[in-house]
Task: inverse folding
């Protein structure tokens, strides 16, 4: 570091990265968008989630995508993390279930046990 101005620029870039990563959001939703997920309807699931959040004017939820999770038989797969709680992985989340999942888990903070992928 050579100057106070350089330090300010570093701080600004760090704050921008924090906003892009969703820090401060009350929830994070991740849709698996590998080829198997897309073939099973993950694009429709992602669209339904984004539409439903917009319709309900929910702005403090970060929605992202990831690649294949290796659980192809459960596609479309959606992961939800609310606040500091553990990430919950759901399987067979079509567009209708996606809306319910947002209402129950993200808004209501109650995971939907019947749709969770049980491992182990």
Result:
């Amino acid at each position: 570091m050579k100057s106070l101005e350089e330090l300010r620029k570093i701080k600004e870039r760090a704050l921008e990265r924090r906003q892009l990563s969703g820090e401060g959001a009350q929830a994070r939703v991740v849709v698996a968008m590998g080829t198997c997920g897309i073939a099973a309807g993950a694009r429709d699931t992602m669209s339904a989630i984004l539409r439903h959040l917009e319709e309900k004017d929910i702005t403090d939820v970060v929605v992202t995508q990831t690649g294949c999770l290796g659980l192809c038989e459960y596609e479309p797969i959606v992961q939800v993390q609310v606040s500091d709680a553990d990430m919950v992985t759901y399987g067979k989340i079509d567009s209708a279930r996606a809306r319910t999942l947002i209402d129950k888990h993200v808004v209501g903070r109650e995971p939907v046990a019947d749709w969770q992928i049980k491992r182990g």
In short: The helical segments are 4-20, 35-40, 42-55, 95-107.
